[in-house]
């Protein structure tokens, strides 16, 4: 009978831990989703920065042409 009560106690412990484990998994999932969103934002910002550098490169090239034209 002692063995049965130990098994029953073990099952109750596992049943009590299950909601805590589920809550931990949900919290981890929320953190991972937030992290993924941050990564997506970083990607968008890097792509925008790349576009801005390309535009700046074009502007610099145009200025160089203006300076060269004035020297002539």
Précis, in short:
With 72 residues, the protein is mostly helical. The chain has one helix spanning 2-71.
Which structural class is indicated by helix and strand composition? mainly alpha
> What value does the Rg take, in angstroms?
31 Å
Mean pLDDT: 91
Number of helices: 1
Number of strands: 0
The sequence of SSEs as H and E is H
What is the element layout, followed by pairings?
Layout: H1 2-71
Can you characterise this structure?
- The model has no long low-confidence stretch (mean pLDDT 91).
- The chain is rod-shaped, with a radius of gyration of 31 Å.
- It has one helix at 2-71.
- The chain is 97% helix and 0% strand.
- It contains 1 helix and no strands.
- The chain is mainly alpha-helical.
């Amino acid at each position: 009978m002692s063995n049965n009560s130990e098994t029953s106690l073990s099952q109750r412990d596992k049943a009590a831990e299950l909601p805590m484990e589920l809550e931990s998994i949900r919290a981890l999932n929320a953190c991972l989703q937030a992290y993924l969103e941050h990564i997506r934002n970083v990607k968008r910002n890097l792509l925008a920065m790349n576009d801005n550098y390309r535009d700046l490169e074009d502007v610099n090239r145009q200025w160089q042409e203006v300076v060269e034209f004035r020297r002539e």
